[in-house]
């Protein structure tokens, strides 16, 4: 797997072509696919394009994997060489997976091969999904090479859409190309000019004028008038270097060739001979332009420029009237196609000045993309139209409303928010359009941006403005009814929900009815209602409408998150499966992303910690534009840091999870983060800080009145109250909590009640009762399962039994130390070992498999990790419950075994 990254003109394609040129002739198949800036919604187009010419390398159809028959409709050119098509599948997600398997099997059949995908930064989401699927387990003998511009990756920052970690059997290389420095420019220019003696002054001026971009250096050098003095570069000019070079090259072409080049420049994308000649070229002129090197032959009989900069240089040189008429001819030629490319039609209509056609084709392109599940492209098209200063004022309102509807299911929100605020501020919207745009703005702010402090006032204002449009107002009230946001009590949210349901009761709008039902199901699950699963069962997951199923995808995302909080993990997994299926079918990116995020929390709770820190961090890296909707990630990273004694890291992550502004964040997660922060303060002996945090969190929980959200708060909060001498407050809180969760279907909440009762009993030295409560909590957590919580409850039980003089408590502590260590909770394991040392029981740490004399023991690995984090010996001693002298000895051993002289050279052990 080779990823070649760099800016436009840096030489990515040139490097790949040079590498391919080193291959022995006939050594392997070379398959080339291209992603395009103006793309039509065609699934997996670049990879399909690359496979069209492999018929001669395929074995007989009967020797191919039968699954490759699924590609017959995608590759009609190969239909005779492929097995029969398998019967269609009812599940679109399964169908997509079969297509992916078929492509991988077909690539395996032609191996050894090199698959090259150019300009991955313009790839659609489906192509990225396919390439991730291939990259996870490349067929034997296949090399996958992709080029992309890092600066065009946007918020995602990853060429494959998310962090890529290669398979152990795959070699993965990232080749990052940077602009040349002065010496590099001198070497390139000297090679091009066959002049190794270029003056330093010339090289410095050339570097200054070209910024070291190889393609521009080459074009400038080739267009020099002959003099190699530095002043010669001033006459070429910047930024007109490429334009002048292209003008000089085109000056020697006949009018027929110029017409073909102009037609290619007008079309922007590589095009076939028929389309180029229809726009303004001739076959003879096209051939001349190719021989002159002005145009380049791409795969599948298409022709265009080697580089977008060259295309732009030629395009800008075409006189305005000629450009307009050329775009009109392009429109006519594209409209004559069986399936006119709507995005290209919109572009040419805009350039031709045909506003009516531009709006018609642009809106149709966005709607088509949304219908095909490519919500990101739909948003991109509408954003581009709204950004255009030539858009008539009267058309901005409908497009803004369309943008808001599409954005509600996507991930990107910054430009959407900016555009919606802009159209609201301009004042040209009708009152109805303004209210709907305000509602869309509020929903995007509250959901994608995670900024409820800004979003909820917009929704409330929109609901007031929509009093004469009750069905649309219902969407706003249903959004406000979600109790996880805001400080209003649960009763207020229930009122808003009833208002929304009353407004849609007589409405003939299936999508809106589904949206309100989704929020009702989410509300019932959020509060642990006994009827929550019954309501969830009524969701129209099989509705023929894409819009309705998109709403249900949102429901399953919510239900997965909430069922995870309540402790219904089997149900949560079912919701996740259905949610991902519907999200893939309908292009609902936002729910799909939230499913990934909340799955991280479910993996923590159910004890699947192996590699969890890396998975969580990678997911968080994708949220540069949406950091407030990945609070689950920060919560899990905080919990992991707490379990390993990384206090500063835990504090940072708990703040990001909602403690920076708990009343404006996602309250269930903020309360869980508060529970973690209380544990942290207690572990560090910061009694006053623990009590203050417990008082704040308990106050927020009381105001909301959704007591099941206290499951990850109550045991630590009760402990903080009790250890501070506030026994009465602790007892009152336990009683309130018991009343609040009575009758609720929330396994985690009921287990937490037993743990909280155990903490209260232990503080009052009622050790037998404490052991009983903790034992019930341990059993309840184990059944769910929540192994870490079960071990913590087991530790409470063991401490109570130790206080009662139970001789078997020591054995329990030893088992708990092992269990914590297996999970990765090194601080908890060390705490249990400290108890064993205090009661005079020897502790034998599990042996690590050594690899040479420098291998670290388990204790040394724990010390090394904390040293790498910059912790002092005293801090390490506090975390691992060791003496400072012991820690000093371990640190010295770590430095010796790692062969380093300083603590700053220690890196965290893998």
Automatic annotation (TrEMBL):
Record's protein name: LuxR family transcriptional regulator
Gene3D superfamilies given in the database record: Winged helix-like DNA-binding domain superfamily/Winged helix DNA-binding domain
Example of a GO MF term: ATP binding
PANTHER family linked to this entry: TESTICULAR SOLUBLE ADENYLYL CYCLASE, TRANSCRIPTIONAL ACTIVATOR DOMAIN
Alphabetical UniProt keywords: ATP-binding, Nucleotide-binding
A cellular-component GO term for this protein: cytoplasm
An individual GO BP term: regulation of DNA-templated transcription
InterPro entries assigned: AAA_16 (IPR041664), P-loop_NTPase (IPR027417), Sig_transdc_resp-reg_C-effctor (IPR016032), TPR-like_helical_dom_sf (IPR011990), Tscrpt_reg_LuxR_C (IPR000792), WH-like_DNA-bd_sf (IPR036388)
Species the sequence originates in: Sphaerisporangium melleum
Record domain HTH luxR-type: where: 849-910
């Amino acid at each position: 797997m080779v990823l070649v990254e760099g800016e436009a003109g840096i030489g990515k394609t040139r490097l790949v072509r040079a590498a391919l040129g080193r291959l022995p002739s006939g050594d392997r198949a070379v398959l080339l696919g291209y992603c395009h800036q103006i793309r039509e919604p065609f699934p997996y187009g670049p990879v399909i394009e690359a496979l069209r010419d492999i018929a001669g390398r395929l074995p007989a159809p009967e020797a191919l994997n039968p699954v490759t028959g699924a590609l017959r409709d995608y590759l009609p050119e190969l239909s005779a060489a492929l097995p029969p098509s398998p019967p269609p599948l009812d599940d679109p997600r399964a169908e997509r997976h079969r297509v992916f398997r078929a492509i991988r099997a077909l690539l395996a059949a032609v191996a050894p091969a090199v698959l090259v995908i150019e300009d991955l930064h313009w790839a659609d989401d489906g192509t990225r999904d396919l390439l991730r699927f291939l990259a996870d387990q490349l067929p034997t003998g296949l090399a996958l090479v992709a080029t992309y511009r890092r600066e065009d990756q946007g918020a995602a920052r990853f060429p494959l859409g998310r962090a890529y970690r290669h398979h152990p059997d795959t070699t993965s290389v990232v080749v990052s190309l940077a602009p040349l420095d002065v010496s590099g420019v001198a070497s390139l220019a000297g090679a091009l000019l066959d002049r190794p003696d270029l003056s330093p002054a010339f090289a410095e001026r050339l570097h200054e004028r070209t910024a070291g971009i190889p393609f521009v250096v080459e074009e400038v050098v080739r267009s020099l008038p002959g003099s190699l003095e530095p002043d010669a570069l001033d006459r070429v000019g910047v930024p007109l270097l490429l334009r002048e070079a292209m003008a000089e090259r085109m000056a020697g072409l006949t009018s027929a060739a110029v017409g073909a080049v102009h037609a290619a420049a007008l079309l922007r994308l590589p095009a076939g001979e028929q389309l180029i000649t229809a726009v303004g070229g001739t076959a003879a002129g096209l051939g001349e332009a190719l021989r002159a090197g002005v145009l380049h032959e791409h795969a599948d009989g298409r022709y265009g420029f080697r580089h977008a900069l060259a295309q732009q240089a030629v395009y800008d040189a075409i006189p305005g009237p000629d450009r307009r008429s050329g775009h009109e001819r392009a429109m006519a030629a594209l409209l004559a196609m069986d399936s006119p490319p709507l995005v290209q039609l919109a572009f040419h209509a805009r350039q031709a000045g045909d506003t009516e056609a531009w709006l018609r084709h642009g809106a149709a392109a966005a709607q088509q993309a949304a219908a095909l599940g490519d919500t990101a492209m739909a948003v991109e098209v509408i954003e581009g139209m709204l950004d255009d200063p030539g858009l008539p004022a009267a058309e901005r309102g409908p497009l803004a409303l369309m943008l808001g509807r599409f954005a509600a299911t996507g991930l990107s929100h910054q430009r959407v928010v900016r555009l919606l605020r802009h159209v609201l501020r301009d004042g040209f919207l009708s009152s109805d359009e303004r209210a709907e745009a305000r509602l869309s703005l509020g929903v995007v702010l509250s959901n994608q941006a995670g900024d409820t402090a800004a979003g909820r006032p917009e929704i409330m204002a929109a609901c007031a403005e929509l009093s004469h449009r009750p069905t649309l107002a219902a969407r706003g009230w249903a959004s406000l009814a979600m109790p996880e946001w805001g400080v209003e009590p649960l009763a207020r949210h229930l009122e808003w929900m009833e208002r929304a349901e009353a407004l849609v009761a007589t409405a003939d709008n299936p999508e809106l009815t589904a949206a309100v039902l989704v929020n009702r199901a989410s509300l019932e699950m959020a509060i642990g209602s006994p009827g929550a699963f019954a309501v969830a069962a009524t969701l129209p997951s099989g509705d023929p409408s894409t819009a309705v199923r998109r709403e249900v995808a949102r429901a399953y995302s919510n239900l997965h998150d909430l069922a995870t909080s309540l402790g219904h993990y089997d149900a949560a997994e079912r919701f996740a499966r259905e949610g991902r299926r519907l999200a893939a079918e309908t292009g609902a990116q936002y729910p799909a992303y939230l499913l990934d995020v909340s799955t991280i929390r479910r993996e923590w709770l159910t004890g699947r910690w192996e590699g969890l820190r890396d998975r969580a961090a990678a997911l968080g890296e994708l949220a540069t534009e949406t950091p407030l909707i990945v609070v689950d990630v920060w919560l899990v990273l905080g919990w992991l840091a707490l379990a390993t004694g990384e206090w500063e890291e835990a504090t940072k992550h708990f703040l990001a999870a909602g403690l920076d502004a708990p009343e404006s964040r996602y309250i269930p997660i903020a309360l869980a983060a508060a529970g973690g922060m209380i544990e942290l303060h207690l572990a560090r002996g910061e009694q006053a800080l623990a009590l203050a945090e417990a008082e704040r969190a308990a106050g927020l929980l009381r105001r909301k009145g959704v007591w099941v959200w206290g499951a990850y708060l109550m045991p630590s909060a009760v402990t903080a109250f009790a250890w501070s001498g506030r026994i009465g407050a602790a007892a009152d809180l336990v009683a309130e909590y018991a009343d609040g969760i009575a009758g609720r279907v929330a396994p985690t909440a009921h287990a937490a009640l037993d743990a909280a009762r155990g903490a209260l009993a232990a503080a009052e030295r009622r050790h037998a009762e404490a052991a009983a409560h903790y034992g019930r909590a341990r059993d309840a957590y184990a059944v769910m399962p929540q192994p870490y919580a079960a071990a913590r409850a087991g530790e409470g039980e063991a401490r109570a039994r130790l206080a009662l003089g139970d001789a078997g408590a020591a054995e329990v502590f030893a088992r708990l130390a092992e269990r914590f260590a297996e999970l990765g909770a090194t601080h908890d394991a060390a705490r249990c070992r400290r108890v064993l040392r205090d009661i005079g029981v020897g502790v034998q740490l599990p042996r690590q498999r050594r690899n040479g004399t420098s291998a670290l023991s388990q204790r040394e690995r724990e010390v090394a990790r904390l040293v790498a984090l910059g912790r002092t010996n005293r801090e390490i001693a506090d975390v691992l419950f060791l003496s400072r002298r012991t820690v000093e000895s371990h640190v010295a051993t770590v430095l010796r075994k790692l062969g380093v002289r300083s603590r700053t050279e220690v890196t965290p052990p893998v």
